[in-house]
Amino acid sequence: MERSKGIRSRTRYKLKKKSRERGLPSLSRILQEFECGQYVHIDIEPSIHKGMPHPRFQGRTAVVKEKRGSSYVLDIREGSKHKLVIARPEHLRPQEG
Q1: Most exposed: 3, 32, 38, 91, by fewest CB within 10 Å?
Q2: pTM of the predicted model as reported, rounded to 2 decimal places
Q3: Beta strands in the chain, from DSSP E residues, in sequence order
Q4: Which of 65, 72, 73, 61 lies closest to 36, judged by CA?
């Protein structure tokens, strides 16, 4: 049988929560706002599938380019290329400092 190649395939450990973190996140994480030009870290929330970026971007730092609806368009540099990723705010954390 051919292996499944869905968007969450091979992410058993990457998208797993600790036992005390299970369930939905707080409302403050869902309703957080970001400015254009702000640096954010992509931290995927596995319990919310809507607006989830591809798991290959987990842990990466990006710049907010624009707000599109309730999501944000992020610019990620990968070598010499720039990639645009669309993600909702519950999958993002502001960079401190």
Answers
A1: 3
A2: 0.91
A3: 39-42, 61-68, 71-78, 81-87, 92-94
A4: 65
